[in-house]
Amino acid sequence: MSKDILGKALLDYHNLKYTEDIIIHSSLGEDDILPIPYMYRGFDKMPLLEQIALQHSSGSILDVGCGAGSHSLYLQENEFDVTGLDASPGAISVCQQRGVMKTIHSEFLKIKDQKYDTLLLLMNGIGIAGKLKNLDKYLNQMKMLLRPNGQVLLDSSDILYMYESDDEDGGYWIPQDMDYYGEVTFTMEYNNEESEPFDWLYVDFNTLRRAANYNGLECELLKQGENDDYLARLTFI
């Protein structure tokens, strides 16, 4: 992640220099805010899907895109063998300072020669695939990292509602040059600094299930959220 915008914001908050949140510019046309304190939330403040995912975690766990380490810390406090993984050096530094015992500073696809019982990809962690065409590559990486009876726990959202038409006939308006409506490009802005644009994927459950099955994985819906989001579990067929 160029300029490590997220890492700088997390470090500022951890070092008591918090003055502003991250602004998210989106190809969907609407800016959003990522509140930095939210990245430090405890279990009781986490969304229900995240709580369920943590409660279903077992064995040795890889927390992919661990951010400030909130999920890793909860699991560690409950005596799980958890490793936090993030491509952001600032995020990894924060995790270490907060007490996460095992961390890896790396991109997900570069992890090799390691095996886990649970891969945890929360806060739409599958978004790191960027484009739907990359999903097979990421699913196969998951298979390489899983033990035979392992599982992947991930949440995502169906964002088709973002394209609802204002016409009286209803329906959806999706740009013709878009391969899949869940592909979004973001830019992060923080403290007068802006990241390079990066691609992020939101994948509806049926599309995820088809991709998983094609790649030799069973896809189970663990919980449907209230806002077109869901929690899924992937296991070997």
UniProtKB/TrEMBL annotation:
CDD domains attached to this UniProt entry: AdoMet_MTases
Signal peptide start-end: none
Molecular-function annotations in GO: methyltransferase activity
Domain of life: Bacteria
InterPro entries: Methyltranfer_dom (IPR025714), SAM-dependent_MTases_sf (IPR029063)
Keywords, in A-Z order: Methyltransferase, Transferase
Domain Methyltransferase: start-end pairs: 56-158
GO biological process: methylation
Pfam families (UniProt xref): Methyltransf_31 (PF13847)
Name of the protein described by the UniProt record: Class I SAM-dependent methyltransferase
